[in-house]
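Work Package 4 report. The design task specified in the project plan requires that, given a folded chain encoded as structure tokens, an amino acid be chosen for each position. We show below one input record used in the internal validation round.
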């Protein structure tokens, strides 16, 4: 009976060791065999691998030689926004203005386009960029439309417009607003803005600081510096106009009202003087009533006129107090930072050569295994 138990135990161990693994599991032995198979595959095909990788690298190297290295110039303006009298986020005066403009206030997001991240998006928006490009500036001693200088010196004609003779020869004859663009001008401005989006950044250098940094990196040094300077002026002008829009409208309304009252007062006073000259010796009650009426109207209009003047002066002071102030902390300094952008054709060629070699080796080994089975 004892021998029977020993045999049964031995047979059960042999069955357990020879039992196949489930299909979703891999044994360590299979892993080792696979590694040795890859080793043999590499020994058989290492020359092919090196040749294809070398060919890809040589092709990429030739591409790098045929294409010029791009040079970019980076300019930066550091500025501060303040001077407005309105409040933001419950903070008074300039402190509230800065807190709102640079996202330092707490609470719900503000719908104002000059608050927080809205300002960063606004500064790079197409309408503001187009206003900058339509400015005239003195470049190399000549009064030049900035958009035309950009077309000639930004590299857009050699990159985006290389195969389009019409666009390469295009230029703007005079400054225009967006509503006056022709179809060709719309296409040109669209391509220019798409390129400038990648050449300009607006950011806050430090989260706790109220300073803002406007940067551009272009292929021409004077273009980068001129664009930065004019774009900051455009942002300042547009910002001030929008921030003081309501106050300006109220000031114009009060000024117009004061002018109208001045005209009415002058007419009433002239009528009163004329009536008094014509009726100096008259003692009729009706004449006295008319004179008193004109005198009362003149006094009433005088009071309204002086009140309108006072309100207009107060609104003008409010307009000055609410006008935001852009303070340039660090202007553009020459020479700008120069950077040479090298091409990466050789690296890409090596990667493509490696990928192609892997595919070729896989097909070759597959064909070899099929032929062995047959």
């Amino acid at each position: 009976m004892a021998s029977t138990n020993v045999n049964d135990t031995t047979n059960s161990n042999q069955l357990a060791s020879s039992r196949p693994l489930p299909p979703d599991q891999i044994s360590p032995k299979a892993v080792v065999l696979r590694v040795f198979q890859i080793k043999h595959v590499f020994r058989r095909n290492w020359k092919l691998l090196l040749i294809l990788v070398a060919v890809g690298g040589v092709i990429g190297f030739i591409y790098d030689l045929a294409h010029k290295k791009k040079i970019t110039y980076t300019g930066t303006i550091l500025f501060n926004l303040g001077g407005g009298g309105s409040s933001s986020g419950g903070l008074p005066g300039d402190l509230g203005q800065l807190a709102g403009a640079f996202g330092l206030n707490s609470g719900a997001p503000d719908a104002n386009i000059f608050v927080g991240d809205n300002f960063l998006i606004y500064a790079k928006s197409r309408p503001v960029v187009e206003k900058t490009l339509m400015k005239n500036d003195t470049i190399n001693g000549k009064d030049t439309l900035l958009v035309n200088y950009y077309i000639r010196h930004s590299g857009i004609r050699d990159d985006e417009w290389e195969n389009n003779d019409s666009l390469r020869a295009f230029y703007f004859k005079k400054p225009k607003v967006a509503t006056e663009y022709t179809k060709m001008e719309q296409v040109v401005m669209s391509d220019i803005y798409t390129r400038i989006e990648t050449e300009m950044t607006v950011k806050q250098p430090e989260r706790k600081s109220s300073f803002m940094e406007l940067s551009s990196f272009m292929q021409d040094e004077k273009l980068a510096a001129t664009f930065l300077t004019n774009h900051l002026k455009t942002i300042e002008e547009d910002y001030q106009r929008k921030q003081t829009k309501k106050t300006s409208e109220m000031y114009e309304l009060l000024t117009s009202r004061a002018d109208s009252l001045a005209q009415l007062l002058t007419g009433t006073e002239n009528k009163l003087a004329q009536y008094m000259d014509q009726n100096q010796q008259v003692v009729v009650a009706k004449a006295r009533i008319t004179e008193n009426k004109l005198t009362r109207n003149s006094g009433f209009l005088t009071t309204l006129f002086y009140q309108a003047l006072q309100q207009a002066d107060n609104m003008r002071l409010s307009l000055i107090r609410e006008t935001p102030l852009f303070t340039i902390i660090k202007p553009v300094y020459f020479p700008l930072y120069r950077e040479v952008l090298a091409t990466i054709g050789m690296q890409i060629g090596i990667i493509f050569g490696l990928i192609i070699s892997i595919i070729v080796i896989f097909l070759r080994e597959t064909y070899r295994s099929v032929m062995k089975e047959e």
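The CA atoms of residues 246 and 260 lie 21 Å apart. Validation will be extended to a larger panel in the next phase.
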